[in-house]
Amino acid sequence: MIEHAGFVLWFTGLSGAGKTTLAKYIEQELRTRAIRLERLDGDMVRESLTKDLGFSKYDRDTNIERVAYVAKLLSRNNVVVLAAFISPYHKTRQYVREQVTNYIEVFVDAPLDVCAERDVKGMYAKAFAGEIENFTGVNDPYEAPDKPDIHVQTHLETVEESGGKVLTWLEERGLIPAQITL
Amino acid sequence: MIEHAGFVLWFTGLSGAGKTTLAKYIEQELRTRAIRLERLDGDMVRESLTKDLGFSKYDRDTNIERVAYVAKLLSRNNVVVLAAFISPYHKTRQYVREQVTNYIEVFVDAPLDVCAERDVKGMYAKAFAGEIENFTGVNDPYEAPDKPDIHVQTHLETVEESGGKVLTWLEERGLIPAQITL
Question: CATH no. for residue A62?
Answer without folding.
Answer: 3.40.50.300
